Amino acid sequence: VRTGLSPAEALETILDATRPLGAETVAARDALGRVLVEPVVSDRRLPPADNSAMDGYAVQSSDLAGAGPENRVWLQVVCEMAAGAEPSRSIGSGEAARIFTGAPIPPGADAVVRQEDTTRDGDRVEIRVATPAHDNVRDAGEDVQVGDAVLAAGTRLGSAQLGVLASLGRAVVSVHQRPRVAILSGGDELVEPDRGVAGGGIVSSNSYSLAAHCHEIGAEPLYLGIARDTPEDLERHFRAGLSGHVLVSSAGVSVGDRDYVRPVLEKLGCELVFWGVEMKPGYPLAFGRFPSSTGPLVFALPGNPVSALVTFEQFVRPALRKMMGHKSWYRPVVQARLAEPLRKKAGRLHFVRVLLERVEGVIVARATGNQGSGVLSSMTAAQGLLVFPADATELREGDTASVQVLDADFFESASPGF
Ligand code: AMP
Ligand code: MG
Asked: In the chain, pLDDT over 90 holds for what percent of residues?
């Protein structure tokens, strides 16, 4: 078992062991947030036919060459084209078709005059503007041509992408499977939130925050419950999670007498790849895999609530995103200016929980206060994790540092920008 890895080495090791999951076919209406396995290639033109961009009259533009307020042109209205109609005849010189937005341009016509520039009188229409060929006409295929790769493999399906799929007549779509993530908590002190706590009891929170994190990114959490601090009970719980793509446990992975997670995993045939990452919070993290690659990737996270969340952020989340077929795996990283100095010992990389604020176009970061790894409330305040590099001992007020932005709402704006 390798030990004392830097966070970057640990991450690389994990991602090397992680593969995108295979394909499954889902209804397009259920595909929001899913990631395309293969490109979507169009079998049709969009729009399917030349059509009108306006309500007005379809004409031969040559009839209107000299038209203007002082030189009005009268045309005979010979047919009407509503949206969805098939052209019944073609338009000749001196003729016009009444036409509505989205209706196909009848043969013979090459432009559309806006209704506002005309006056109707019975079956004739007076036109007051010259209208060059192509005016107010949307060309067949101007949006999409047959054979266009409209969406690339690896595209996340959002609202616009699902609209495009619908317009191409796709009711089903091939996407990467969602990772199933078995989640387990371990500890004799732990109780579920709906039970009373007595004596040395602690309400288990990790399973809930980690499951929520899975939901947030579109993975499927499966809660395995709380294992007692015995090898037998841990083994029983771990076995229940072996059919998932990923198994995430928290606690029992450190060096205490009752920390049985590592020996139990090894007993189950899991190869522990590393234990211990030079970071704070989150040092006692183990990562394992099954040699035949039939079993899940195993992340044994530390038990302290903040350590569990921070290690999930740094290692589990990117692995899950890679499995889901995403092209990028990390939170937005911004450069922020420190509002206050920070100090630490050299050696471990610190992820500092910070509040973020935009001041005159600059993002300013300040620590949330108590950085203890048990202080879960500080995690609710934290909008970002500031990277305090391993070798550094001091960051001064005004220095710039990288911050992983955890709070997507940070990029929501108080003004619309127009
Ligand atoms: P351990 O790694 O088992 O020594 O646990 C470290 C600390 O995390 C202890 O204070 C535990 O009580 C706490 N802890 C472990 N699991 C959980 C959990 N699921 N929810 C909240 N706290 C936990
Ligand atoms: Mg414990």
From this structure: 90
